[in-house]
Amino acid sequence: MKKKLISAVLASAMVLSLAACGTTGTTGTDTTAAPAENADATTQEAAPADTAATEAPAATEATGDLGEVRLLNGKPEINDQMQALAAKYNEETGNTLIVETIGGDTNASDELKKMYQADNMPDIFVIEANQAANWDGMLADLSGEDWTNKTGFELTNETMGTIGFPYTVEATALGYNADVLKAAGVDPASLTSPDAWKAACETLDSKKDELGLTAVFGWCAEPTNLGWSSGTHVFGQYLDAGLKADDTTYIDLLNDGGKIDEARMKNFAEFIGMMNQYSDPALLIDGTYDTQVAGFKEGKYAFITQGNWCVTSPDDVSFECGFAPYAFEDGINTIIAGPPSYWVAYSNGNVEGAKAFFNWCAGDSAQNILVNDAGLVSPFDDCQYEAVNPFYKSMNSYITAGNYSGWHTMLKKDGLQNQTCNVFADYAKGKLDADGFVSTMAQVISSYYAQ
Fold first, then answer.
1. β 68-73/301-304 pair status
2. Helix axes 417-428, 262-277, angle to 10 degrees
3. pLDDT tens digits for 106-155?
4. Per-residue pLDDT tens digits for 397-428
5. Does the structure show a pLDDT above 70 at 262?
6. What pLDDT does residue 109 have?
7. What sign has the CA pseudo-torsion 53, 55, 58, 64?
8. pLDDT at 65
9. Residue 104 above 50 pLDDT?
């Protein structure tokens, strides 16, 4: 895949990569894989004055004894594969990588704060693009490393340089069951306008019994446990659907004191209203991530409001999966795609060891493990392995065609999702109509930015 995404504002994080997936038993650090938006790490004030980012020398070779490197893994569902990755790294280079996986009952942010305060920071850890400022002066500049020539998805910062190593690419849109759509005579390629979506929903709803559907949409607006989904991922479609990856029109407007485009928000609201209408009522109001995903996997829903992380193995489903855009305006034909988060190197840690690992990790042996065993989608252009993820074929078709938008939702003011998710919930409960959704969203956002 050709992926050209050169700055921090072009790709950001999928919170779910650290949130909904954190249910597997782990080894290493016994803390919880918390939602990434809460993993704000140490505050800027906590950074010591002498922690200037390391200037990058020539690319580091991943051979020889560079000392032990500790990596804090925020994806407990791939802990076993990460341990295998560490073993392979040692076998091929003689260098040592210690993988510590976050799991259990402690917030990831709290764990990193404890590590910092105890002078026990890992050499490599995970951040989201909008968290870079929290680590200003504490991250190594990775510019000039060999791996940077193999991807356009590196995380860069105007003052700190190249700071983030992308270890996977994820996408979100409206995931669909291709077999159900085919049986109903709905062409997913046609779903690029509100009218096309309304016609498809009417057709699918009228054939629910024969198709074995509970509802057209598996969409949950419950704010307490799934607020990250509505407040970040679904809200992110208002910000980016239909835009090129480098188009920051609506996130710039949002970050200019919490302003919105009311006409675009009204179109978005009407689309969400359609989703509310054709969703499973039990799931819409009081559902959970597990019931939402299980229902989709079982064929109960034609569409799901998640991303490629919700179905990771061909064994999870008996049907072909794909993505359709949130086409709340005519001509919208993009999905949101980019790295969910980035590995960074702590500037006061083993920087040379971290750089060596990153260069090796972009190579064949590591990509084999991460793609074929861990089920990740490689961000590297020369990777020969095709992801086994059931959404990959559809996801790749959008990316190679250039029909993908950036993850600008993660560049909004931190914590906004905790407010906007409640507006989605009230709309789902019938407390608001489309106009009320727009006016309430505008008020909630402007008030939050005014704080």
1. unpaired
2. 50
3. 445 667 788 999 999 999 998 877 778 888 999 999 999 999 999 988 99
4. 999 899 999 999 988 998 899 999 999 999 99
5. yes
6. 60
7. negative
8. 76
9. no
Output the CA–CA distances (angstroms, integers) from residue 384 to 88, 154, 229, 340, 379, in the order listed.
18, 19, 32, 21, 11
Residue 153 and residue 6: Cα distance in Å, rounded?
6
Cα four-point dihedral sign 170, 171, 177, 178? negative
Q: What mean pLDDT do residues 368-381 have?
A: 91
Smallest CA-to-CA distance from 288 within 214, 227, 237 is with 227
Q: Are 12 and 153 in contact (CB under 8 A)?
A: no
> Which single residue is written with the structure tokens 């790490």?
41
Q: What is the pLDDT of residue 114?
A: 87
Average pLDDT on 166-173 reads 94
40: tokens are 């704000």
3-state secondary structure the chain: CCCCCCCHHHCCCCHHHCCCCCCCCCCCCCCCCCCHHHCCCCCHHHCCCCCCCCCCCCCCCCCCCCCEEEEEECCHHHHHHHHHHHHHHHHHHCCEEEEEECCCCCCHHHHHHHHHHCCCCCCEEEECHHHHHHHCCCECCCCCCHHHHCCCCCEEECCCEEEEEECCCEEECEEEEHHHHHHHCCCHHHCCCHHHHHHHHHHHHHCHHHHCCCEEEECCCCHHHHHHHHHHHHHHHHHHCCCCCCCCHHHHHHCCCCCCCHHHHHHHHHHHHHHHHCECHHHHHHCCHHHHHHHHHCCCEEEECCEHHHCCCHHHCCCCEEEECCCCCCCCCCEEEECCCEEEEECCCCHHHHHHHHHHHCCHHHHHHHHHHCCCCCCCCCCCCCCCCCCHHHHHHHHHCCCEECCHHHHCCCCCHHHHHHHHHHHHCCCCCHHHHHHHHHHHHHHHHHC
Task: Give the integer Cα–Cα distance in Å for 231 and 418.
Answer: 7
Q: Sign of dihedral through CA atoms 229, 234, 237, 238?
A: negative
* Predicted model pTM: 0.77
Contact criterion met (CB below 8 Å) for 137 and 52: yes
